[in-house]
Amino acid sequence: MTSRAARFAAAFAALYAAHQLGDHHVQRDDDAQTKGKPGSDGRAACARHVATYTLTCAAALAATNRVTGAGMRPGRVLAGLVFSAATHYVIDRREPLRRFAEATGHAGFYRLGMPRPGRDDNPTLGTGAYALDQSAHVGCLFVAALIAS
Asked: DSSP assignment of 40-105, as one string?
C-alpha cells in the first residue's frame, strides 16, 4: 500500500513536469498569442490550449501511476485534472490574473518588463506577468496534486 505522502509526491512531480511540457512545448504558438484576447477567438484559443494541457497532465499522471504503483484512484485523478483545467483556463485568460495582481498590490510587478507605448521594447517571457502566471499555475498544481492523491 502506497502512502498518501508518496501519492502526493508522485502526483505533484507528474503534474509539474506535464505543466512545463503542456504550457511550453505542446501549446500551439497561435493559441499562446491569442488565448488572453477578449472575445470568442481568445476563449477558443484558451480552451484548445487547456484541452491539450490537460491531456498532457492526464498522460503524465497515468504513466506515473502505472510505473510507480502510486495507487492513485481514477476518480481523484479526474477531480484533480478538472481543478487544474479550470484554474488554468482562468489564469490564462490573463484579465483575471491582472485584476488579482492589482487587487493584491502587485500591479507594478505584473507590468514589469512589458513593452511600453512609444518605445522599442523587446517583449520577452521575463515579465512580471509571466512570473505571476507561472506561480499561480504551480500553486494550483499543488492543490490538484492534493486532490489527485
From this structure: HHHHHHHHHHHHHHHHHHHHHHHHHHHHHT----HHHHHHHHHHHHHHHHHHHTSHHHHHHHHHTT
**pLDDT tens by residue, 37-76:** 999 999 999 999 999 999 999 999 999 999 999 999 999 9
Answer for the pair 133, 91: CB distance below 8 angstroms, yes or no. yes
Contact (Cβ atoms closer than 8 angstroms) between residue 11 and residue 61: yes
Among 140, 4, 143, CA closest to 72: 4
Q: Which letter does DSSP use for residue 111 in this model?
A: H
The pTM score is: 0.90
Cα(40)–Cα(62) distance, integer angstroms = 32
| CB contact at 8 A, 65 and 9 | no
Single-letter residue type at 83: F
Backbone angles phi, psi at 73, to 5 degrees: -85, 135
Which cell numbers in the block locate residue 41? 477567438
